[in-house]
Amino acid sequence: DNLLEIKNVKADVDGKEILKGLNLTIKRGEIHAIMGPNGSGKSTLCNVIMGNPHYTVTDGEILFEGENIVNLKVNERAKKGIFLSFQSPEEIPGITVDNFIRTSLNAVTNKNMPMLQFAKSMKEKMDMLDMKQEYRTRYLNVGFSGGEKKKSEILQMAMLNPKLVMLDEIDSGLDIDALRIVAETVRKLKTEDMSILIITHYNRILDYLEPDVISVLAHGRIVKEGDKNLAKELEKTGYESILDEVLS
Ligand code: ADP
Ligand code: MG
Ligand code: MG
């Protein structure tokens, strides 16, 4: 059962082609890691799946639960259950964490969650993330440390309960304890219906999340696929040997 199928996608940003015929399949319930050199197009891929209008798909299809979503807007994709945790979460002065999450949740579900239920659910998730309740009334990400921003992203994910979670370098800038808390929380929140696409340069988070599949993205394409041992191999050899193999 495929949740997401990306078929021969080409995508531009500012008139420059970044994705050059990318193919990728993510099964329902799968944890799929994407690794690859800096600037290879990993964040671009996430933005293209989410529908960020800054990125233009010029060819190919993105099938989500069998439906081509290429022409859908970000909010329409969010309603379908797609969630992206940004590599560099934005600071939003004037909007509290509470307000932001409540608004997103109500928009995605088309319902108003009663205040008490919302507060209870927030507390439960914030406790898992070891986040104090006072963050609820802080402006979103304003003055948050790198680690606190990543936790606030996971809190949003926890509340929205999407079908496809994309975590773009969620482990960058986290200390060892925060990394463990974030990774363990993601693992606890993951249901059988939820797929995770995780982008990382490091093995540590993969030791917690145990990906089913690891794909290597380079030069705008998926150039290799393997199981979790591929990450260990890459740590030893780097990307060059793979690229030599693929490009020769
Ligand atoms: P990765 O996440 O693998 O490091 P990115 O997807 O961020 O790579 O970037 C791939 C390429 O696309 C880079 O050359 C980058 O400079 C370019 N790029 C990505 N986003 C933008 C943007 N918003 N505007 C201009 N160039 C961009
Ligand atoms: Mg990068
Ligand atoms: Mg990136």
Give the structure's gist in a few sentences:
By secondary structure, the protein is an alpha/beta fold.
Give the topology, please.
Blueprint: E1 2-13, E2 16-27, E3 31-35, H1 42-50, E4 55-64, E5 67-68, H2 74-80, E6 82-85, E7 92-96, H3 97-109, H4 115-128, E8 139-140, H5 146-160, E9 164-168, H6 176-189, E10 195-199, H7 204-209, E11 213-218, E12 221-226, H8 229-237, H9 240-247
Parallel strand pairs: 3-10, 3-11, 6-9, 9-10
Antiparallel strand pairs: 1-2, 1-4, 4-5, 7-8, 11-12
Helix pairs in contact: 3-5, 5-6
The structure holds adenosine-5'-diphosphate and magnesium ion (2 copies).
Residues 13-14, 18, 36, 38-44, 54 line the site of adenosine-5'-diphosphate.
Organism: Thermoanaerobacterium xylanolyticum (strain ATCC 49914 / DSM 7097 / LX-11)
Protein name: FeS assembly ATPase SufC
Domain ABC transporter: 4-244
Describe the structure.
The chain is 38% helix and 30% strand. The longest helix is centred in the middle third of the chain and has 15 residues, at 146-160. It starts with a strand and ends with a helix. It has a single domain (2-247), classed as 3-Layer(aba) Sandwich (Rossmann fold), CATH 3.40.50. The relative contact order is 0.18. The protein contains 9 helices and 12 strands. The strands form 3 sheets. A 6-stranded mixed sheet has the order 6-9-10-3-11-12, sandwiched between helices. Strands 2-1-4-5 form a 4-stranded antiparallel sheet. A two-stranded antiparallel sheet has the order 7-8. It binds adenosine-5'-diphosphate (ADP) and magnesium ion (2 copies). One magnesium ion binds next to helix 1. Belongs to the ABC transporter superfamily. Ycf16 family. One of its GO terms (molecular function) is ATP binding.
